[in-house]
Amino acid sequence: MPKVEFLNAGKTIECGQYANLRKVALLHGVEVYKPIHKLPPPIGNCRGNGLCGFCVMEIVEGLENLNPKTLREQFKLKGKPANYRLSCQCQVLGDMACITAVALTDEPVAAAKT
Ligand code: FES
Prior knowledge:
By secondary structure, the protein is of the alpha+beta class. The chain has helices at residues 21-27, 71-76; strands at residues 3-6, 11-14, 19-20, 56-61, 84-86, 91-92, 96-100. It has a single domain, classed as Ubiquitin-like (UB roll).
């Protein structure tokens, strides 16, 4: 079973293969959104539909263990580092480590792979 390490939350969680990254975090009490983005649409997040971009995570390790970027991610994350992903669009296929939006600043922690 893949292990997902949420670095800023200090939690490592085992999940099933193909599990949705956003749901893994939410089910285990890991904050996915900044406080203002916890609100419902249209002000807050889109509840996992790949439209708002507020569930972004920086993948520090294991980027290769996620599904390829969806079209919604390619649109929403245009110009962002390659290791930024919308967690609601990600299927976990293997071990990985990430930083949630709560702790993200403008500067990525890990060097982005192109
Ligand atoms: S929850 Fe809105 S893009 Fe992921």
